[in-house]
């Protein structure tokens, strides 16, 4: 198995989740169907609670933003089962969330709500966060070599903490030095990686970002970070150009830290 060296100046590893630490199938076949199945019930049960009100408020702001950009959710014909104003409002939120999910949108509003909904699924043991077998031993090795390890995912920080706090490997949250989500900026924007470097307290050049998505890799590179593209079963196919441009790994165990034992 070929090794890939990361620069000697690296002080922090920044890890994507879906397609990098975790199979895409876990997100698409377990996490997202859970939301679709429980959305209406969840909203009806928690509608009057502050957290749910904030989630709905954020979604409404996103809808306004989408309308300004001519990206509006299709409005469905009035459903005969909807009677009260509350039921109508819930139905609008359900339609919007399902529409955003069908497009695999990474909006902060959608991701915040999803994170809150997964809480009881994880804490009841119904869902356990999947992590590839090479991930935890590699992170432990990197930490032993003095590196810091951070997560940057479109999934909310709360959703990230649930996944690693209730993972198939147990609670592994102690391994991480911090978490970032889209509240710092979109993963496809260079500025987000500059802000992350500032928050970590190192120049972008000291960060190595591991991701499966080349648009994210490009943005991180633009900010000056070192990038490694992770190839896992079911990830998006890379073009020949992308294959030759990026350092590729199929397992975290291939990463070698130059000049470190
Ligand atoms: C953090 S668990 C939820 C996964 C998710 O909703 C998501 O959008 C994953 O995106 P990523 O940036 O980790 O590829
Ligand atoms: Mg990903």
Short synopsis of the structure:
The chain has 261 residues and is of the alpha/beta class.
Helix and strand topology:
Elements: E1 4-6, E2 12-15, H1 24-46, H2 50-68, H3 85-102, H4 108-123, H5 135-144, E3 148-152, H6 157-165, E4 178-180, H7 190-200, E5 207-211, H8 214-222, E6 226-230, H9 240-245, E7 247-249, E8 255-257
Parallel strand pairs: 1-8, 2-3, 2-5, 3-4, 5-6, 6-7
Helix pairs in contact: 1-3, 1-4, 2-4, 4-6, 7-8
Bound molecules: the ligand CSCCC(=O)C(=O)COP(=O)(O)O and magnesium ion.
Residues 16-19, 27, 31, 106, 111, 114, 153-155, 159-160, 163, 187 line the site of the ligand CSCCC(=O)C(=O)COP(=O)(O)O.
Binding site for substrate: 153-154, 187
Family: Belongs to the HAD-like hydrolase superfamily. MasA/MtnC family.
Protein name: Enolase-phosphatase E1
Give a written overview of the molecule.
Helix 2 runs antiparallel to helix 4 and helix 7 packs across helix 8. Helix content is 46%, strand content 12%. The relative contact order is 0.19. The protein is built from nine helices and eight strands. The mean pLDDT is 95. Strands 4-3-2-5-6-7 form a six-stranded parallel beta sheet, sandwiched between helices. Helix 6 links the parallel strand 3 and strand 4. The chain is of the alpha/beta class. The chain folds into two domains: 147 residues, Rossmann fold; 96 residues, Transcription Termination Factor Rho, Rna-binding Domain, Chain A, Domain 1, CATH 1.10.720. The protein is globular, with a radius of gyration of 20 Å. The structure holds the ligand CSCCC(=O)C(=O)COP(=O)(O)O and magnesium ion (MG).
